[in-house]
Amino acid sequence: MMKHCEIRITGRVQGVWYRGSMEKQARGLGLRGFVRNEPDGHVYAEVEGEESAINQLAEWCKKGPELAIVKRVEVVEGELKIFKTFEIIR
Predict the structure, then answer these.
(1) What is the tens place of the pLDDT at every residue in 35-55?
(2) Could you tell me if 90 and 21 are in contact, meaning their C-beta atoms sit under 8 angstroms apart?
(3) Catalytic: 55?
(4) Helices 51-61 and 18-28, interaxial angle, to 10°?
C-alpha cells in the first residue's frame, strides 16, 4: 500500500552529503519524493512508496552518511501527492 511521509532530520546534517546519500537510498528503495536543506540547519524530505521501504529509509536516516551526526528523526504521515521521481531540491 502506498504511503506518504514527511521526514525531518536534525543534527549535523548539512554539508555532509546527506541529501545526495538520501537520494541514492530512496531511489534504491523505489521511493519517490524530494529532500532539501532548510534554513534552520535541518534536512526535510517527503517520500512516497511502500510502507516497508519508507521504514527502511527512516532507519537509514537515523545514521545517515558517514560524516553526519543525527540527533533526531521525526516521521509524520501525510496525504499522497503522487511524486514522479525522487529529487534533491536546492
Answers:
(1) 999 999 999 999 999 999 999
(2) no
(3) no
(4) 150
State the Cα torsion 21-26-30-31 to the nearest 10°.
-150
Q: Which of 32, 37, 72, 90 is catalytic?
A: 37
Maximum alpha-carbon separation in the chain: 34
pTM: 0.96
- For residue 67, what is its C-alpha cell? 560524516
* Residue 19 bears catalytic tag: yes
Point out the catalytic residue in the list 12, 19, 27, 55.
19
Architecture of the structural domain at 2-89: 2-Layer Sandwich (3.30)
Cβ pair 4, 79 in contact under 8 A? yes
